[in-house]
């Protein structure tokens, strides 16, 4: 599956979370870039950034940031300001580390600066460690709660939290008032500290949704509605994660694998005690890029998230749960593999109301 950069998804997101004029400004900047008016596009982006700082648009700024820095970098690169462009692209890649540019859609100066930024980040980025956890820790928490439309609410990110019974009950409500009351009660019954004015559960949910939207979006699909978004919303950031090319042996239907290490050897590497750094080094040794005989042109990969005991929900009998997201031509992008332990963990992670309305 081709992983071409599809920034138009940001414009699709904006009407739900931004002020009325911001999507129009963003679209204007894109059109100016498309037709080579790079200086004008930069000016429009500056206006867009200024207007997004208005009170009440905190969530808008979070959703806006990836697209804004990308097009600012693209305009700077097209104007020959490669160093400035690279800095903007490095920030964008912090949000979308797997993004790729289609050379047919962007000037060569833009794709060159973009790849330079990617190489710079890869050179500076540590080979192991909780990269997603670090990124989430520094991610800004949305200010306030976005307005929730009653129509289609159950199909949004909250669907990861809804039990089948709650989804059924909501679908049976016919009028907006009843649905609004259901939504208010849904959050109320999940407030861990009802004596405080804040609902800490919902605040954490909103932050995970915003992070997923900025990091895991695919084509026209919001990041929070993807498989990776679902896992992140329910479990939070993994203890550590990695990505490697998908080899033939990774497909359970095809035993002709090219990995130098068997799955059992890879699993054993995550045990053995010792520090987190030592364990991560062992895993890297048996799953890293040097451990497989690979075709450099392969467009297929597997992204692997490891959750250790300390961050797993109560009642999970595993010391570690591994989630694998496979991208493969003709199969899909970042598709969660339905491992029994992974599915059981997700089911256990779905929060239930802990007090009556």
Layout of SSEs?
Blueprint: H1 8-17, H2 22-34, H3 38-51, H4 58-78, H5 82-95, H6 108-124, H7 131-137, H8 164-171, H9 176-188, H10 200-215, H11 227-235, E1 240-245, H12 263-269, H13 276-287, E2 301-308, E3 320-328, E4 332-336, H14 340-349
Helix pairs in contact: 1-4, 2-3, 2-4, 3-4, 4-5, 4-6, 5-6, 10-11, 12-13
Question: Could you characterize what this model shows?
Answer:
The chain has a 4-stranded antiparallel β-sheet. The longest helix has 21 residues, at 58-78. Residues 1-20, 124-129, 252-263 and 285-298 have low confidence and may be disordered. The N and C termini lie far apart (46 Å). 48% of the residues lie in helices and 8% in strands. It has helices at 8-17, 22-34, 38-51, 58-78, 82-95, 108-124, 131-137, 164-171, 176-188, 200-215, 227-235, 263-269, 276-287, 340-349, and strands at residues 240-245, 301-308, 320-328, 332-336. The protein has 14 helices and 4 strands. The chain folds into 2 domains: 8-125, Serine Threonine Protein Phosphatase 5, Tetratricopeptide repeat, CATH 1.25.40; 130-357, no CATH class. The protein is of the alpha+beta class and 357 residues long. A hairpin with a 3-residue loop joins strand 3 (320-328) and strand 4.
């Amino acid at each position: 599956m081709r992983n071409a950069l599809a920034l138009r998804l940001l414009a699709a997101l904006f009407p739900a979370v931004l002020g009325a004029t911001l999507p129009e400004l963003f679209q204007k900047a894109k059109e100016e870039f498309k037709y080579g008016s790079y200086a004008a596009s930069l000016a429009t982006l500056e206006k867009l950034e200024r207007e997004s700082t208005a009170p009440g648009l905190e969530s808008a700024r979070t959703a806006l940031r990836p697209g804004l820095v990308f097009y600012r970098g693209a305009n700077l690169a097209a104007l020959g300001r490669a160093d400035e462009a690279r800095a903007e692209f490095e920030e964008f890649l912090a949000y979308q580390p797997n993004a790729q540019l289609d050379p047919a859609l962007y000037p060569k100066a833009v794709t060159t600066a973009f790849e330079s930024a990617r190489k710079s980040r890869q050179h500076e980025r540590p080979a192991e460690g909780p990269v997603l956890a670090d990124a989430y820790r520094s991610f800004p928490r949305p200010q306030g709660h976005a307005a929730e439309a009653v129509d289609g609410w159950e199909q949004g990110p909250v669907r990861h939290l809804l039990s089948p019974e709650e989804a059924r009950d909501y679908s049976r409500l016919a009028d907006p008032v009843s649905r609004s009351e259901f939504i208010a009660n849904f959050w109320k019954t999940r407030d861990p500290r009802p004596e405080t004015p804040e609902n800490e559960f919902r605040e954490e949910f909103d932050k995970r949704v915003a992070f997923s939207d900025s990091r895991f979006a695919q084509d026209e699909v919001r990041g929070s509605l993807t498989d990776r978004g679902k896992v992140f919303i329910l479990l939070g950031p993994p203890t550590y994660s990695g990505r490697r090319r998908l080899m033939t042996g990774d497909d359970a239907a095809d035993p002709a694998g090219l990995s130098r290490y068997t799955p059992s050897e890879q699993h054993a590497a995550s045990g053995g005690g010792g520090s987190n750094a030592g364990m991560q080094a062992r895993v890297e040794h048996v799953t890293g890029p040097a451990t497989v005989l690979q075709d450099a042109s392969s467009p297929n990969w597997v992204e692997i998230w490891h959750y250790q005991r300390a961050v797993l929900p109560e009642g999970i009998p595993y010391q570690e749960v591994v989630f694998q997201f496979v991208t493969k031509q003709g199969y899909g992008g970042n598709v969660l593999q339905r491992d029994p332990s992974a599915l059981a963990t997700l089911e256990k992670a779905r929060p239930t109301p802990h007090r009556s309305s």
